Amino acid sequence: SDLYVAIRTTLADAVARSDGVAASELKREKKTSLRVHGRSGQPCPVCGDTVAEVSFADSALQYCPTCQTAGKPLADRRMSRLLK
Q1: 8 Å CB contact between 31 and 52
Q2: Cα–Cα dist 74/36, whole Å
Q3: What is the rounded CA–CA span in Å between residue 73 and residue 64?
């Protein structure tokens, strides 16, 4: 399936990029290959749409509304809880 191929490709690329990288540098190396992680408010490098952010408890995730959710914004659980 496409998902299987994507997962295998992603993992193989990550292993290849980390080869020879010191353990203390692995987290920084991982982030350099992520297209939208930590880039909230900036243009998506693929389509140019603005990278959005959703918060959950003590963490957050960034995503491209065009590339990853077909234009549908994800609900920010922090705000929806306060509006009840």
Answers
A1: no
A2: 15
A3: 9
Structural tokens at position 80: 């929806």
Give CA–CA dist 74/11, Å, rounded.
Answer: 26
Calpha distance 12→84 (Å, rounded):
44
pTM (predicted TM-score)? 0.62
Place of tokens 């193989």: 12
Residues of the chain under the 70 pLDDT cut: 77-84
Nearest partner of 56 among 70, 26, 76, 41, judged by Cα = 76
Q: Residue ranges of the domains in the chain?
A: 1-33, 36-84
How many distinct helices (H) and strands (E) make up the chain? 3, 2
